[in-house]
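Fold this complex.
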Amino acid sequence: MRKPRTRVSSGNPTLADVAARAGVSQATASRVLNDSARKVGEQHRQRVLRAARELDYRTDLSAQAIARGTAPVLALLVSSIDDPYFSAIAEGVAQSAHTHGVIVTIAITARDTERELTSVRTIRGQRPRAILVSGSRVTESPHTAALVAELRGFAAGGGRTIFLSRPVGGLGAVRPANSAGGRELGAAIARQGYRRAAVVTGSPRLETVTERTEGLRQGMVPLGGVITTVESDTFDRSGGYRSARRLIESGRMADADVLCAGNDFMAVGAMTALRDCGIRPGHDIAVTGFNDIETAADVTPRLTTVRFPLAGIGRRAADLALGSAAPPPDDICVPGQVILRASCPPRPG
Amino acid sequence: MRKPRTRVSSGNPTLADVAARAGVSQATASRVLNDSARKVGEQHRQRVLRAARELDYRTDLSAQAIARGTAPVLALLVSSIDDPYFSAIAEGVAQSAHTHGVIVTIAITARDTERELTSVRTIRGQRPRAILVSGSRVTESPHTAALVAELRGFAAGGGRTIFLSRPVGGLGAVRPANSAGGRELGAAIARQGYRRAAVVTGSPRLETVTERTEGLRQGMVPLGGVITTVESDTFDRSGGYRSARRLIESGRMADADVLCAGNDFMAVGAMTALRDCGIRPGHDIAVTGFNDIETAADVTPRLTTVRFPLAGIGRRAADLALGSAAPPPDDICVPGQVILRASCPPRPG
DNA sequence: CCGAAATGGGAAAGCGCTATCCCACCTGTC
DNA sequence: GACAGGTGGGATAGCGCTTTCCCATTTCGG
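Structure:
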């Protein structure tokens, strides 16, 4: 006889413990605790419930997962969670997961495609029901192919994958309609009378960035507008500040009548840069952003922007991923809405 | 002989598959894949690695967890992830978890103490290494006792618990020093010459709220200052807007020389309310916030606030929870730093 | 009343891993 | 040459749970 493995005496109570205490078989205990289809006599049912309560029993999810062959888990991959864009999406995902009775595990990739890859590898080990990949795709990353291969493998094992940015490899996506949003914004500012737009935005390797800028151009051109210059920096507040300053100092801001930022943070940073240089945003030059973050309405002047239902996108993606019907790998673009505010008044001239 | 359970043929490859393909025992395969202390001949090692690669094998974490008796998981409980306060903390937690090679699962409670409870119950089933509870404690919730009991049970099973707000039940915490921060801010504005503070903040049932307000008072009083009135609403931007308006419309704002908000969002909303009523923030009345959110530096006038290293707090809590040494249940208060900006200029009078 | 069809319970075979034993073989050593 | 001490490999007992079988009772229609 083998020596029994040293059992951690202080370990958690197991189903066997519950069954023993209730004086029934494990099978019965399991049936009660999972209210399975199989009926259990009221007598026994009560005793099991009571035993479980008294022992402070909690089903071991790992064991359950392995026995059932599937874990009630949804994995979310984001570049950063400390960014309103992603946290809004995450909020929606979490809501949906909660109503589906599923646990959310989150991995942050810090915009590092290699880390993205290793994260997916690890996550696959959890055998989640689905993997949601947010975080703007970086064009031509050397790891993209590997990522796609990894996700394909996951799908082959029965998992679902949904991108919250432009999809690759024939997988599905639910995402903000950046191009269309850009077009509408471009048309809107052109209708306000602006014709020469200077753009401050993130790295052109981020697809979100190129989609927005390109959309903007497409919206303005038919109405006689034009993008005079594009300056890139980090896709955040300080990037907005810095690139706006560069534009001003190099004189390229001088002939623009509107400054379009790639997102609201950049817009807000850029407005500060303008002010620091004695230019009055909304007065000497119009300003626009993207996303409609909460403070967009509180800066002065209030920021014109494009609002996307981010939480709704997250929710929808998760619903799709967790729904019973296998979703076709669609590329669903959720439209945005132009919010015209004081930073972009009808042009006086 | 029993009929073997219908095996999902499309399932993921198992360790047995890898071992078979490599022509070795499962034990050997396991040893290679986990680079265990036990050495394996180079021959076999290579073959196992190759087989794993060819099969696109991913260790099943649930199975591993159950076999090892512990899962590489850290659970984080927050009120909302769509709130810069919590997402900053979450970011820090995720960073730490990543360096510890641990997966993060996140549960949002929507400030609902009952949901908080059920979340902890579910989470315990994951047998995580630790549970981090963020989200301001609500005083006197009927569920608090149950929550504590649940966390105690978790600790009894070998898990660790850390609060990121005021701890209860003798458990540990790492949290922003709200009281001290309030005191310092109170003293700072008094030194700027302000004496009569109106406060707009969240529900007095939130401990964060009372700690900050009380600290503020303690900081001002010794220097001859006083809190003239406190108005509560939701702890966010619109709550700030609404409560500021109520203060103005009821005339209670008239005799205050500084408006102190419970957090930056409320401050920003309140500033908009002031402006909507023709009062110039930073000019007719000083304004302060709490937390130093990114846009605090970009509103006009730039917002005076108290900065807390939120991500650092999250990281530290996670480090503590994942460290090898069992941490004593300390209540660690991380100090904040008063950031004096234009919204609170030296008082002219 | 009798056999058939429920009904409710238990035994035990996995699920995919890890880790303990055990064993066969290879070195050295006196 | 025999024996103590490595070394590397394989069998296999769990880990905690689900679920399939199987079995003993009841319940009924005819």
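Chain B touches chain A through 61 residues (CB under 8 Å).
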